[in-house]
Design a protein that fits this description.
This protein is mainly alpha-helical. The protein is built from 7 helices and 2 strands; from the N terminus they run αααββαααα.
């Protein structure tokens, strides 16, 4: 799992918590097995990029200390851009199921991201967005 996928999962998790009242950890199960240091480094990136609120510092020994609060408008925009663009490029019947869902964003996440691996299209779009932030 690369950093783009990790960041995408984190953003979708906090988006789901804010807009759908779903605990973000429910959506971060896909990060099982990823070292804590890698997750924290990616959380630090999201805080520094102002996509989520939080505190990103370092302990005296150099380990990252990160606490994330809420997703910010920039993070919301990324999730919504990924969701809208990715759904249209998915193959049927998955795209049709998602379009017919009363809750498009949540359906996208559950069917295309958390169920198996992150949708390739979503990772490509996110990679491009993150590249513009760097």
């Amino acid at each position: 799992m690369d950093n783009t996928e990790i960041r995408l999962r984190i953003l979708f998790g906090y988006y789901a918590e804010l807009y759908h009242g779903r605990p973000e950890l429910e959506f971060l199960k896909g990060l099982k097995g990823v070292p804590e240091s890698v997750i924290k480094a990616n959380m630090t990136y999201l805080v520094d990029a102002k996509l989520v609120t939080g505190i990103a510092e370092r302990y005296a020994d150099g380990r990252p200390r990160v606490h994330i609060g809420r997703i910010l408008p920039g993070g919301v925009n990324i999730v919504e851009e990924i969701t809208g663009k990715s759904i249209d490029r998915l193959e049927e019947p998955t795209a049709g199921e998602i379009r017919g869902s009363p809750d498009r964003h949540l359906a996208f996440w559950e069917k295309c991201v958390n169920v198996a691996t992150v949708c390739k299209v979503a990772v490509e779009i996110t990679g491009k967005i993150f590249a513009t932030l760097a």
